[in-house]
Amino acid sequence: MDLIKKLWRARKLILVVLIPLSLLPLPLIHPTSEACCAYVLIVTAVYWVSEAVPLGAAALVPAFLYPLFGVLKSSEVAAEYCKDTTLLLMGVICLAASIEKWNLHKRIALRMVMIAGAKPGMLVLGFMCCTVFLSMWLSNTSTTAMVMPIAEAVLQQLISTGVADTQEDSETVEATEDDCLSGMAAPSISVFYFYVNSPLCVLFSQLPTVETNGTGRKASKASLGQLSLKQTNGHLPSEKESKDSRYPTKRDHMICKCLSLSITYAATIGGLITITGTSTNLIFAEQFNNRYPDAKVINFGTWFIFSFPIAIIMLLLTWVWLHFLFLGCNFRETCSLSKKRKTRREMLSERKIHDEYIKLGPISYPEVVTGVFFILMTLLWFTREPGFVPGWTSLFEKKGYRTDATVSVLLGFLLFLIPARRPFSRAPRTPAGDSAERDPDPMAPMITWKDFQNLMPWEIVILVGGGYALAAGCKVSGLSVWIGRQLEPMSGLPPWMVTLLACLLVSAVTEFASNPATLTVFLPILSALSETLQINPLHTLIPATMCVSFGVMLPVGNPPNAIVFSYGHVQISDMVKAGFGVNLIGVLVVMLAIMTWGVPLFNLTEFPDWAIARNVTGSL
């Protein structure tokens, strides 16, 4: 048993050593460029899928194995690790750092939730909408880490008032909010936000703490006895829920599950909308433009036009699915906007959200500047090459020199120069929850290099670079052509069937492997398959890129899942059950999009000239 335990603890080291050694006969017996490239590709893919070494470290494997096997020169490999998308990501991170530093994201989230109201169904929809919007511009992980503490504050308010209001939870309040709250002492909850290794965490301290029952409230035998007999909103709480759990009723637990899972799913949906929304979109854009340089069809505008309807449909269907799964089918009760039907607990929840918004104070000068930059960057991206009218790049004599990265880096650079203090005014207020002293420098910029460093995902940059290096090796060695020839038996399948199989395969693999690693491995294979079958490559590549983000069934599927799971409201069985439905919804909606509005947008009915040119060149 001791030997087995030692081997289990050293399993990653054993895997790192055994995989290259066991595959070494491949390039030794067949010393061709294709075999050597396949060896590097398999070793890197196994390292990525198993996570035996960090993803960024595994992405460096092509940097030394390609030169050793004579596939690519060292200088050629190095050039693949910094591309146009790297600069695009750096500019977006500058804007994200400013948004986060000045709490603009929190103001947007709280305002949208205030508009939605505190009814459970509308509360979930409100949080989903604000999460989708933020995730369009920030990373899915950052968005989840930002929104979850706000949601947790609302959930804790629901829980903290649960026992006291159980008897009257089903009563509606026709009086005004002030009348409802008169004579009732709301518990004092202090919310402290802080960072731990970049995820945003939250602590709730409940005062006073007197003989608590696990939720920070006074426990009384009378209240618990009444609770066990009282039916609340159609749900009879079990003995375990009322005494041993931190949730006053089963319905409260269901609300916590629904709201928590809705945030991680909304972050995934929002990341689909823009090229910069998630790293997998960037990987696709760069590999596609690198493989098909004459295509000129993928930019910020075309991607947004295609993906925005997908996100809207997925948002609504996912909300309905989660509501049905955790809150039941009574949408009229949980989604009513009438103030006369609000319970006391819903009134208190609205008060809590309103108090958090008041703490932010009036909108500050840095928030205004950040908002202006946010809008300006979006407009410049949309109007660069909109397609139906000439873009602003047509004003320049030389064409093809300016990309979305040009706009991103320019505006990101300006954030390091523009002072955070309004000219001839006092120092700006510090962000809420920040204990640091105010900067005495009147010319302190909107963001500092340290702010940028704290958010810049260098591991993703190296990971994306490793994917580019693998793709370049497959192209130069001829491995991609060889793979395409092996897939010729699939030529009898219709295009929609090929796309569906690719979506199902990718969405299954990504449940157990990281999204960027999965897409990096599959993109060259699907490109070669499309060229062999004479299908427009976009017909398979775009759906696969979107479906790779649907790893939502397990905590290890993606970082947002892990963040939500760490709050303790959901179990793995809840994530599997809800995630399977979201995964199915995502695949069906993406297939609907690629078969309908995607056809005229990308001209998917024809095998394009830029793909023919690439196919002919690769065959030579």
Structure description:
The chain is 63% helix and 3% strand. It contains 31 helices and two strands. The protein has helices at residues 2-9, 11-23, 25-29, 33-50, 55-58, 61-69, 74-79, 84-101, 104-116, 120-135, 140-160, 177-181, 221-229, 239-244, 250-271, 279-291, 300-327, 331-334, 344-359, 365-384, 404-415, 449-455, 458-477, 479-486, 495-509, 515-532, 538-547, 559-566, 572-595, 598-602, 609-619; strands spanning 188-195, 200-207. The protein has a two-stranded antiparallel sheet with strand order 1-2. Mean pLDDT is 75; it is low at 162-244 and 432-437.
Short description:
Its main location: membrane. With 620 residues, the chain is an all-alpha fold.
Features:
single chain, 620 residues, mainly alpha, two-stranded antiparallel ribbon, 31 helices, 63% helix
Please outline the helices and strands.
Blueprint: H1 2-9, H2 11-23, H3 25-29, H4 33-50, H5 55-58, H6 61-69, H7 74-79, H8 84-101, H9 104-116, H10 120-135, H11 140-160, H12 177-181, E1 188-195, E2 200-207, H13 221-229, H14 239-244, H15 250-271, H16 279-291, H17 300-327, H18 331-334, H19 344-359, H20 365-384, H21 404-415, H22 449-455, H23 458-477, H24 479-486, H25 495-509, H26 515-532, H27 538-547, H28 559-566, H29 572-595, H30 598-602, H31 609-619
Antiparallel strand pairs: 1-2
Helix pairs in contact: 2-4, 4-6, 4-23, 6-23, 8-21, 8-22, 9-10, 9-19, 10-11, 10-15, 10-17, 11-15, 11-19, 11-28, 15-17, 15-28, 16-23, 16-26, 17-29, 20-21, 23-26, 24-26, 25-27, 25-29, 26-27, 27-29
